[in-house]
Amino acid sequence: MSEMKKDEIAEDQELIGDDTLDEGAAVAEMEALRAERDEMRDRFMRALADAENIRKRGERDRREAEQYGGSKLARDMLPVYDNLKRALDAATEEQREAAKALIEGVELTMKELISILGKHGVQAVAPEVGETFDPQLHQAMFEAPVPGTKAGAIIQVMTEGFLLHDRLLRPAQVGVSSTPGS
C-alpha cells in the first residue's frame, strides 16, 4: 500500500478516535463505497434510459392521437356519406329536373362532406368491378359463381370503404366471384 494511503488511514483514525481501524477495514470500506457508487451509477443510467423511453412513447402517442384521434367521429360520419350517396343515386332524371335546387343542395353537401373528411385524412376506398379482392381493404359480403370472371374478382360493390391516413376505418363491402373464368 502506498505511503499516501497509509497517511490517509492514519488521519482517519485520528479524526474518529478509533485505534482499531486497520488497513484492511479501510480497503474493505473503500471497496464497499465503490460498489455502492457503481450500483447508484447503474440505477441512474437505467432511470435516465426509462425517462427517455417514456418521452419517446409519449411523443409517439401524441402523434398518433393527433393523426388518428378523430377516427371515431369519422367512422360515425360514414353513414351520413352513405345516405347522401344513396339519395343522389336514387334520384331519376325526372326527379333531378323537378327538384333541381334540392339535388344541387344535396350534391353540395356531399362535396363539402368529402372535402372535410379529406382535410382530416379520410380517403375513400372505391374498388371497381373486376378488380381483385383484397382482404386488407375489402369485406366479402357474398360469393357467387359468375361465368366469365376470375375467382376472387369483385363482381359487385355495395358500399365504399374508407382509410384514415393509413388505417382502415371501414372496409369496402363487395361481392366476390367464386368460380374460375369460363
Describe the structure.
- This protein folds into 2 domains: 3-67, no CATH class; 69-177, Nucleotide Exchange Factor Grpe, Chain A, domain 2 (Roll), CATH 2.30.22.
- By secondary structure, it is α+β, with helices and mostly antiparallel strands.
- The mean pLDDT is 88.
- It contains 5 helices and 6 strands; from the N terminus they run H-H-H-H-H-E-E-E-E-E-E.
- Helix 3 (71-90) packs antiparallel against helix 5 (100-119).
- It has helices spanning 3-16, 23-68, 71-90, 93-98, 100-119; strands spanning 122-125, 138-144, 154-159, 161-164, 167-170, 172-177.
- A hairpin with a 2-residue loop joins strand 4 (161-164) and strand 5.
Spell the H/E element sequence: HHHHHEEEEEE
Structural class: alpha+beta
CATH superfamily of the largest domain, by name, is Head domain of nucleotide exchange factor GrpE
Stated plainly, the CATH topology of the largest domain is called Nucleotide Exchange Factor Grpe, Chain A, domain 2
**CATH class group of the largest domain:** Mainly Beta
Q: Please bin the fraction of helical residues.
A: 55-70%
Distance between the termini: 97 Å
Radius of gyration: 36 Å
Strand content: 15-25%
The count of β-strands is: 6
Layout of strands and helices, then pairs:
Blueprint: H1 3-16, H2 23-68, H3 71-90, H4 93-98, H5 100-119, E1 122-125, E2 138-144, E3 154-159, E4 161-164, E5 167-170, E6 172-177
Parallel strand pairs: 2-6
Antiparallel strand pairs: 1-4, 3-6, 4-5
Keywords:
182 residues, alpha+beta, Nucleotide Exchange Factor Grpe, Chain A, domain 2, 2 domains, 3-stranded antiparallel sheet, 3-stranded mixed sheet, 5 helices, 6 strands, 17% strand
